């Protein structure tokens, strides 16, 4: 075992009851396990997550139940395990520290569905039907709006409030869900008593990154993504095939920098601003070819991706990521049960529930949420 692992996954080195941390506020965010993370995730959320792990007590969800709202064919479900592993490995490679953060698989915490169920009467169908991204997701998946998809924000509210998170760093496409979460928290607190914080979104540094086609936001399903796990030759090939300025026929034609994804990537990933500005000037003046700019972009991307590949490799041994996910899920499960206990008590389910739970605890048995 490498030294980094020996220190990071040993249970004694981490604060086992993250909830008990009096200093750092709780943060929750995550992704659906639909495939490897790409450069768009890196600028949109990952870098931000890496920065935030010092100031916050961070939990990262692998939201497989959310994935089921649009991708629920047996073949898609069969990919969850591998995709969860990739997701966590990508995040670790990008710099998240397993000794300080918690990763968990949503479906291993079934209590979150109970919490989502209790939240369902705190939000109207009308409110959910007005969220544009849900309609888009239904359309993109070629399915009718399912009950589950309409409830997507309610389940997300349950994820966030289960661990009583105060900060939720997500992309713009998720702001509406965090807003629903805030409404649910407010309404719950007003109706039953103060249990939940009202979580805030935390913005990333570049909200979205255009794809290699220069047309739409980078996305695996659009085939315009550079994955964090792409090997160097694949990165080179993708960059060399990138869209630039369609009106530029030769290297001496003055080119457009604005809206040109090659320069958008240089701005997002390059550290040497003087060199980038000089390239832009030469590009505008028709004094540099696309190939030279792209070759420089490959260099810039490799300086970002290569250290991430190496770090990723240190966690790649079979079982390491799996253990992190299992232990993290167990911690979040304990936390969610405690939240459910507070919720039931606040809602007034106390009497019979409390007696049953006390009896179950004495008998060493396990009622859900006991
Ligand atoms: N909705 C997120 C996505 O776009 C995934 C997600 C599920 C999530 N639950 C969450 C994000 C809780 C932040 C907090 O994939």
Features:
elongated, 5 strands, 52% helix, Tyrosyl-Transfer RNA Synthetase, two-stranded parallel ribbon, Rossmann fold, 370 residues, 3-stranded parallel β-sheet
Task: Characterise the protein shown here.
The chain is mainly alpha-helical and 370 residues long. The protein folds into two domains: 3-208 and 318-362, HUPs (Rossmann fold, 3-Layer(aba) Sandwich); 230-312, Tyrosyl-Transfer RNA Synthetase, CATH 1.10.240.10. Helix content is 52%, strand content 6%. The protein contains 17 helices and five strands. It has a three-stranded parallel beta sheet. Strand 4 (167-169), helix 11 (175-192) and strand 5 form a beta-alpha-beta unit. Helix 5 crosses helix 15, helix 6 packs across helix 10 (152-162) and helix 10 (152-162) packs across helix 11 (175-192). The longest helix has 28 residues, at 320-347. Bound molecules: tryptophan. Tryptophan (TRP) is lined by residues 28-32, 61, 63, 66, 156, 159-160, 168, 170, 174, 177.
Layout: helices, strands, pairs:
Blueprint: H1 3-8, E1 26-31, H2 39-52, E2 57-62, H3 64-67, H4 74-78, H5 80-93, E3 102-105, H6 111-119, H7 125-129, H8 132-140, H9 147-150, H10 152-162, E4 167-169, H11 175-192, E5 200-202, H12 232-240, H13 261-269, H14 273-284, H15 290-313, H16 320-347, H17 350-362
Parallel strand pairs: 1-2, 2-3, 4-5
Bound molecules: tryptophan.
The site of tryptophan has 15 residues, from strand 1 and helix 10.
């Amino acid at each position: 075992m490498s030294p980094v692992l020996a220190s990071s996954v040993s249970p004694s080195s981490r604060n086992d009851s993250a909830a008990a941390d009096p200093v750092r506020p709780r943060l929750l965010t995550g992704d659906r396990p639909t495939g490897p993370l790409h450069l768009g995730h890196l600028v949109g959320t990952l870098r931000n997550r890496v920065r935030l792990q010092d100031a916050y007590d961070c939990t990262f969800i692998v939201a497989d139940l959310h994935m089921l709202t649009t991708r629920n064919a047996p073949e898609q479900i069969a990919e969850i395990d591998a995709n969860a592993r990739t997701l966590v490995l990508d995040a670790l490679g990008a710099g998240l520290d397993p000794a300080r953060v918690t990763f968990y698989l949503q479906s291993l915490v079934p209590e979150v569905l109970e919490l989502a169920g209790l939240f369902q009467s705190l939000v109207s169908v009308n409110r959910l039907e007005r969220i544009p991204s849900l309609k888009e997701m239904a359309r993109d998946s070629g399915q009718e709006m399912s009950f589950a998809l309409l409830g997507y924000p309610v389940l997300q509210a349950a994820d966030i409030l289960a661990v009583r998170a105060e900060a939720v760093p997500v992309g713009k496409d998720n702001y509406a869900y965090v807003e629903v979460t805030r409404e649910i928290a407010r309404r719950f607190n007003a109706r039953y008593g103060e249990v939940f914080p009202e979580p805030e979104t935390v913005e990333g540094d570049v909200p979205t990154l255009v794809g290699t086609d220069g047309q739409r936001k980078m996305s695996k399903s659009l085939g315009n993504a550079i994955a964090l796990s792409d090997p160097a030759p694949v990165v080179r090939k993708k960059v060399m095939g990138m869209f630039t300025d369609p009106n530029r026929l030769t290297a001496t034609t003055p080119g457009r920098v604005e809206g040109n994804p090659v320069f958008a990537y240089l701005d997002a990933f390059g550290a040497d601003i003087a060199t980038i500005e000089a390239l832009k000037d030469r590009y505008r003046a028709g004094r540099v070819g696309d190939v030279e700019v792209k070759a420089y972009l490959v260099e810039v991307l490799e300086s970002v991706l290569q250290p991430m590949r190496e770090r990723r490799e240190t966690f790649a041994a079979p079982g390491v990521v799996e253990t992190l996910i299992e232990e993290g899920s167990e911690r979040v499960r304990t936390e969610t049960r405690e939240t459910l206990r507070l919720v039931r008590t606040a809602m007034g389910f106390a009497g019979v529930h409390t007696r049953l739970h006390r009896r179950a605890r004495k008998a060493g048995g396990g009622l859900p949420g006991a």
